[in-house]
């Protein structure tokens, strides 16, 4: 439930279109729903503009299914990150329209259309191996109501590939740059665009990459201004932040 929907309910109670009892029943699950193993934050969209997202990793299949089963009673789009195929199959039994992206490991259910701004978000990867994290960012931004342009495999090992797509990248309202190895692409893009760059270090790389730590430190030490950094492999965090920027 967002702020406008809440205002509409209160207005209907005030005008007598629905009774106080009916309104109370609608609002009964605010601010959260207690499921025993989870407390679903139904007030989050009112507070921050976006509904709660389900981080599926570490949860059981039945827990994920139970959370989504309740969330389906609300008129919100649903996003689950780090989901397994087993979780997808379980959710499909209660919601056949659920979509699963194997690369991103995301579950998405679209319950309502969100009007996207005319501006868009660019999601850029250094290599093909970085695409799973980039897809998590892109799908997150899309389910939150944004247009996304994907520009993949344009890393510094073949910098001419980046310049071939630079106009598309420069046209974005925010740019998500996903890179492993030494993570240099974020600094390069940051020096070429006048928009916020959200850098995502990935765990892709050989041993001295230290599971993404080398890319993380390189991005944090970027000499290009306007580059911010999220955690290793955190495509969701980057997509969420890019959406907030795009809708300012």
Automatic annotation (TrEMBL):
InterPro entries: P2CMN_synthase_LarB, PurE_dom
PurE domain segment(s): 119-248
Lineage top rank: taxon: Bacteria
Name of the featured protein: 1-(5-phosphoribosyl)-5-amino-4-imidazole-carboxyl ate carboxylase
